[in-house]
Design a protein that fits this description.
This protein is α+β, with helices and mostly antiparallel strands. About 10% of the residues lie in helices and about 20% in strands. The mean pLDDT is about 85.
């Protein structure tokens, strides 16, 4: 399986409550492959979204064998298209 990087699609709206004023809120959790020949984030997620405005998550699936590819605290925000692609690869 290709090394993946978990990325957050953030809501940076100042009205995002409960996280401190102006603090970004995770809207969706995506997965992206690494760039060819590199360990850097690739340009697109597995669902086809541009990763430019996304933030890499500290969660690294390779450091959590037997766990899902996404951080458990954001299970309710997982991109279903990215999840489907990764499910097909396993």
């Amino acid at each position: 399986m290709t090394e993946i990087i978990v990325v957050y699609e953030l809501d940076r709206a100042p009205t995002a409550v409960g996280r401190g004023e102006g603090a970004p809120v995770v809207r969706h959790v995506h997965a992206a492959p690494t760039a060819p020949g590199s360990s850097a984030l690739g340009p697109r997620t597995f669902c086809g979204k541009d990763t430019f405005a996304m933030e890499a998550a500290p969660w690294k699936p390779s450091e959590h064998p037997g766990s899902s590819w996404y951080p458990p605290e954001h299970a309710d925000r997982v991109c279903s298209a990215c999840d489907a692609v990764l499910e097909d690869e396993t």
